[in-house]
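Supplementary notes (optional reading)

For those who missed the lab, this is the record we used. Protein: Cyclase family protein. Length: 257 residues.
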Amino acid sequence: MDVVAGVMAGLAGGAVEIVDLTAPLSPHTPVLRLPEPFANTIPLSLEKVSDFDADGPYWSWNNIHTGEHTGTHLDAPVHWASGKDGLSVDRIPPSRLTGPAIVVDCTAEAADDPDFLLGPGHLEAWTAEHGPLPQGAWLLFRTGWSARSDDPEAFANADENGPHTPGVSVAGAEWLAASPISGFGVETVGIDAGQAGGMEPAFPVHYHLLGADKYGLTQLRNLDLLPTSGAMIIVAPLPIVGGTGSPARVFALVPRA
């Protein structure tokens, strides 16, 4: 109780701040687009049920139409072939959805090269400077890409060769899969690089992390408001029974001096 009381006192007094890492979810939220012949998920749309009218004079509500992997969302292991026998989103233990937030900042590299890939060398340099990754941490890959999220074309950054967005190399994905993290979060539309479809294996972050019972988190914002370490992340997906993922609200508890 002393620990909980300390957090509550910190929130009330401003020593702890809640930072929302979630992108707003609307019909304009960017959605991953796969090339033909693959099928695509749908963006968000709302269907009015009633709005203080004859169908419901005292209440307003909507039906939601969207995919599991729309906007800021969680990827569960069953989303990928390598994790198909793993956990669906409703079965992920809540203890795995909270943990230390670790920020690896590669904004300069991504600004110079939109196809920048995070590799073992970058991760080992980070741990050499800041210490080993904590058990159950969420590694958040800061690239500055969220600044583009209100412009779908700039966010996708696509040409005749497909999208060009930063991500993780095959070796980097293997490194992360073998690490003690619970999950990996990005600012881009998906947890893999824009050109990851041409890697071996294709989409290596999906393949290696989801196959290792680790989770993905996409379209994050406000990573610039987090310290390199010392914050705590809270990931709150919908517990969709059998779900391969879910839109999520994501917060960080950040200590302030």
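If you only remember one thing from this example: The radius of gyration is 19 Å.
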